[in-house]
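Colleagues,

For the teaching module next term, I've prepared a clean inverse folding example: a structure given as tokens, and then the sequence designed for it. I'd like students to try predicting residues themselves before seeing the answer, so please don't circulate the second half yet.
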């Protein structure tokens, strides 16, 4: 269980929510609404105020490397620190399995990352994150560069990990995707949570 209480920073007003094991909370809102800011704050990548707990353990009481192993942020264009994706995986076998599950040829793992498309790098970054077996995955537009078939593979793989208890906070501008994957929606506008729209009365 991830608990977020009044997390805030510049351009982000206090946000609070609970994220249960295996749940997917989709974050929506226009560009500049604070979606990436929220994810980066939860991952403790930028200075922020508020309280974040994982299974009751306070973020500030958890060593930073341990927190970032359990709560992984994946940017829309993730950073890499080696020439190939293969160098980022502890297990070549798991890397191959994850790549294939995402519709990628295993040989892409050993090609220079600079020669791969944005969509290929996005999927390999997701594989890299899943290979670390986090408790919470913070996904920032992970399928923005993908076609419909590749999107389906990403959604299916994340769903499989959710069935094992992975909690997901997923930013998407795709309303149809949000309807497919979300247990709940959180909408941001100008750095503030917008209340859910009231259902029309019969």
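(Answer key — instructors only)
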């Amino acid at each position: 269980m991830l608990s977020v209480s009044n997390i805030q920073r510049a351009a982000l007003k206090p946000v609070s929510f609970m994220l249960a094991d295996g749940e997917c909370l989709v974050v929506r809102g226009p560009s500049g609404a604070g979606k990436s800011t929220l994810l980066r704050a939860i991952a403790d990548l930028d200075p922020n105020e508020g309280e974040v707990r994982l299974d009751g353990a306070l973020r500030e009481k958890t060593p930073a490397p341990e927190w970032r192993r359990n709560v992984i942020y994946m940017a829309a264009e993730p950073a890499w620190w080696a020439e190939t994706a293969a160098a980022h995986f502890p297990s070549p076998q798991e890397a191959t399995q994850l790549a294939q599950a995402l519709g990628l040829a295993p040989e892409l793992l050993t090609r220079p990352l600079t020669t791969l498309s944005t969509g290929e790098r996005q999927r390999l970054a997701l594989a890299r994150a899943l290979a670390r077996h986090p408790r919470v995955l913070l996904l920032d537009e992970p399928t923005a560069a993908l076609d419909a078939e590749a999107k389906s593979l990403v959604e299916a793989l994340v769903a499989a990990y959710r069935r094992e208890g992975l909690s997901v906070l997923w930013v998407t501008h795709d309303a149809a995707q949000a309807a497919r994957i979300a247990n709940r929606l959180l909408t941001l506008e100008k750095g503030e949570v917008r209340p859910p729209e009231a259902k029309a009365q019969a």
